[in-house]
Design a protein that fits this description.
six-stranded parallel beta sheet; alpha/beta; single chain; nicotinate phosphoribosyltransferase; 392 residues; 15 helices; 2 domains
């Protein structure tokens, strides 16, 4: 019996190529026997399909993928992490002997698909929420081993904060959260729980009271306002679907009760089942959204890693576009053009006449990192700037 406490791969197992599908070691064996393992190829990562109603995605996971190729005899081109991309556009391109990186195909696909899917969903939610705060509450819906990854991807995609302690630590930010129902249930009385929260926790922690544990939401909000008064920063509604009813009407009642008691400053926090439709329907009433499963388990951005050149010549399986490529973007209107890598650069955008610039940069040359890896905060800022220029 194995001695692992958790079913997770170590760094060494990932880097050694052990986390792969069995047909890749078999392919290596066959190619080595037939003297073809060192064939020089270019492989691109791209999406040929998006989820329904998706027109773009947020490239995420590059920082992890870079670690696979340091010291390898490969050149790696990539879009900057956080770049918003469209169908058919290569986000990553690797050239070198197949022996150096072919076995990593499942690892590359897995890292980029998962990160990109989470970041994209977070970006869509942020775009819809506009200036409202988004907090990622989703680590309880995924395996704890990948919780920091999900925290990072959601943060890069546009979430203003995360509740995960370790994820926040790795991001260099403070975790954000309110209180669990258990706190109230162990105290028996909602007022006692709220007063204990107020008494024990440091003043810098916002007094956001969970108001749906024992009584009707409106009743608990009224009790919270009477219990904490001006110290009350916000009320959180986490009503389960079995008792939710018309959430918009519930929120309208809550806002009315708060305003009627002179607490116009008190914010409404909504969690439990929040998704894009919820945001659209409630964003005029809600100040802060706690979003979990919708971001942690998003529609998949099905990125694929495919050969597009062999020994320097365009070559691919059917259904794919052969040839190494570059993507050019207009600085003004966000229009993109995909061309073969060595084609002349388009001087001006065919839509608005603006200047075009290449999206794929050389990050690794013969195994050495030559392009700066931006901080997570810089990547997030880049995402938010792009969201201003694009529609859902």
């Amino acid at each position: 019996m194995h001695r692992r406490k958790f079913y997770i791969a170590t760094d060494e197992e990932i880097l050694s190529g052990k986390v792969t599908d069995v047909y890749y070691p078999r392919t290596y064996l066959i190619l080595k026997e037939k003297n073809k393992l060192e064939t020089n190829v270019t492989m691109d990562v791209h999406a040929y399909n998006f989820p329904k109603n998706y027109n773009w995605a947020v490239f995420c996971g590059l920082k992890e993928v870079i670690n696979l190729f340091l010291g390898k005899k490969v050149d790696v081109y990539a879009m900057d992490e956080g770049t918003i991309f469209r169908l058919y556009e290569p986000v990553l391109s690797i050239t070198g002997p197949y022996s150096e990186f072919g076995i990593y195909e499942p690892v590359i696909d897995g890292i980029l698909r998962h990160n990109t899917s989470i970041a994209t969903k977070a970006a869509r939610c942020k775009k819809l929420a506009m200036d409202k705060m988004l907090v990622f509450f989703g680590i309880r819906s995924i395996h704890p081993a990948i919780a920091p990854m999900a925290d990072r991807a959601s943060f890069i995609g546009g979430c203003d904060a995360v509740s995960g302690v370790l994820g926040a630590e790795l991001l260099g930010i403070n975790p954000v959260g309110t209180m669990p129902h258990e706190l109230t249930l162990i105290f028996d009385d909602v007022k006692e729980a709220w007063l204990a929260f107020d008494e024990v926790l440091p003043k810098e922690v916002p007094r956001i009271m969970l108001c749906d544990t024992m009584y009707d939401e409106r009743t608990e909000v009224w009790l919270a306002s009477k219990t904490l008064g001006e110290r009350l920063y916000g009320v959180r509604i986490d009503t389960p679907s079995s008792r939710k009813g018309d959430i918009r009407k519930i929120l309208q009642e809550i806002r009315w009760i708060l305003d009627m008691n002179g607490l116009k400053h008190v914010k409404i926090v909504l969690s439990s089942g929040v998704d894009e439709e919820t945001i659209i329907n409630t964003r005029d009433l809600v100040d802060i959204y706690g979003i979990g499963t919708a971001i942690a388990f998003p529609p998949s951005i099905d990125l694929a890693f495919d050969i597009v050149e062999k020994e320097g010549k365009p070559y691919s399986k059917r259904g794919k576009m052969p040839g190494r490529k570059q993507v050019y973007r207009c600085k003004n209107c966000f229009n993109d053009v995909i061309l073969l890598f060595n084609s002349p650069k388009p001087e001006k955008c065919g839509v608005c006449g603006g200047d075009m610039f290449p999206l794929l940069k050389k990050y690794i040359e013969n195994g050495k990192l030559i392009e700066e890896i931006k901080s997570d905060q810089e990547i997030k800022k880049y995402v938010l700037e792009q969201l201003k220029k694009i529609q859902i």
